[in-house]
Amino acid sequence: MSARRAFPLEAYVGIYFLVYLPNVIITKLITSLPRGAGIPPLTGLETLPASLILNAILTYIFIWLAGWYRDAHTVTVAGRTLPVPTRYTVLSGIGTALVLFTVPLSFTFKGVSIPFIQLLMRGDILVIAPLVDLIFGRRVRWWSWTALALVAVALAITLHDRGGLKLPPLAILTVVLYTLGYFIRLAVMTRIAKTGEPASIRRYFVEEKMVALPLSVLILAGISASGFGGQSGELGFGFITIWSDPVMIWIALIAVTLTAISIFSAIILLDARENAYCVPLERASSLLAGIFGSILLAWCWGLRMPNSAELTGAVILIAAIVLLSVAPRFGASRRALAETQ
Q1: Residue 39 β-bridge partners
Q2: CA torsion, points 120, 318, 126, 15, in degrees to nearest 10?
Q3: What backbone torsions phi and psi does residue 154 show, to the nearest 5 degrees?
C-alpha cells in the first residue's frame, strides 16, 4: 500500500500521456508531409507493418529483461519451461490485436482530424466500460458515471460541429474493430486479472502479448491483401521495401512509444477499481495527447489546428480527469473523518 501511495495511478496516467504524445506527432507527420521532392508521405498501411513488428520485438525484449515471463502460466516442452497463455488470455490477445493496429491507423486518414477520430473511438469504449462492470457485478460509483457523462458531452459537441460522422470506409471499419477489440479485452481483464496485484498485471501482460502482437500483424496483412478501401497495393512497401527507407528511424521511434504505451495502459486498466473509473482515465489521457499533439503539429509544422469544438472537448476531458483524481480521495477522507468521530 505504501508503494501505491508513493506512486498513485494518476502518475502512471501522466507518464502514459507523455509517451503517447510523441507517438501521435511522429505518426501524423510521416503520413502527412512529403518525404522529399516528389516523394509523397507514407500511408497508414505503409507504416503499420514495420512499426508493429518492431513493437513485438521490443515488447518481448522487455518481458525477458524485466523478468515478467516468470509470472506467466507455463508448459514443459522437451525439458524446458515455456510461458503459455490460457484460453482467456488467448481471447484477450485477439481483442488486443484488433486494438493494436487500429489505433495507429486512426491517425492517418485524410480529412479526418486526430481529435475527432479519437473522440469517436474513445467514446465507444467509455460506453462499454460500465456495461462490463455491470455484467460482472462490479459497483460503479457516482464519479465514474459523471466522468463518463462529461466525455459523452465532449463527443457530442465534436460530432455536432462536424455535422455527423462522414468517414471513409476504412475509417468506419477501424472504429468497429477497435470497439469490438476493447470490449473483448475489458471483459477478459475483469474476469481474470483486475485484482490490482502486480503479479497479476505481469501475468496478463505477458500472456496477452504472446497472442496479440503476432496476430495483429497477420490481421493487418489480411485486410491489406483484401483490397478493402483500395489500399492493397501498399502492402508490399509496408512489409518489405520500407526497411531500407530512411523513414525507418521514425518508424522505430513509433515502435518504442507503442511498447511503452502498452505497458502503462495495462497498469492503468488492470487497477482493481471499476472499469468505469480506470477506462476514462486511460482514454481521456490518450485523447488529450491527440489534441495537444494536433496543436503542436499546427504550431510547428503548419498542419490543421483543432477547432473550437475540439478544444472545448479537451477542456471537458481535463475536467473528467480532475474529477476522477479528486473525488475518490475526497470520499476516502470523509470516511476516515467519520470513523474518528
Answers
A1: 36
A2: 100
A3: -60, -40
Distance (Å, rounded) from C-alpha 34 to C-alpha 43?
Answer: 11
pLDDT of residue 31: 85
Sign of the CA dihedral running 14, 92, 237, 242: positive
Q: Of 137-141, 233-237, 284-288, which gets the smallest average pLDDT?
A: 233-237
User: Which amino acid is present at 221?
Assistant: A
What is the amino acid identity at position 49? P
The pLDDT of residue 236 is 65
Cell, residue 182: 476493447
Q: Are 221 and 125 in contact (CB under 8 A)?
A: no
3-state secondary structure the chain: CHHHHHCCHHHHHHHHHHHHHHHHHHHHHHCCCCCECCECCCCHHHHHHHHHHHHHHHHHHHHHHHCHHHHCCEEEECCEEEECCCHHHHHHHHHHHHHHHHHHHHCCCCCCCHHHHHHHHHHHHHHHHHHHHHHCCCCCCHHHHHHHHHHHHHHHHHHHHHCCCCCCHHHHHHHHHHHHHHHHHHHHHHHHHCCCCHHHHHHHHHHHHHHHHHHHHHHHHHHHHHCHHHCHHHHHHHHCHHHHCCCHHHHHHHHHHHHHHHHHHHHHHCCCCCHHHHHHHHHHHHHHHHHHHHHHHHHHHCCCCCCHHHHHHHHHHHHHHHHHHHHHHHHHHHHHHHHHC
pTM of the model: 0.82
Residue with cell 502518475: 11
Q: Is 271 exposed, middle or buried (0-12, 13-18, 19+ CB in 10 A)?
A: buried
Residues near 239 by Cβ (< 8 Å), separated by ≥ 6? 49, 50, 221
Orientation angle between helical segments 308-340 and 142-162, nearest 10 degrees? 170
The three three-digit cell numbers of residue 269, written as one number: 486498466
CA–CA dist 311, 298 (Å, integer):
13
Please answer whether residues 95 and 230 qualify as being in contact, where contact means their C-beta atoms are separated by less than 8 angstroms: no
Place of cell 489521457: 285
- Answer whether 210's CB lies under 8 Å from 93's CB: yes
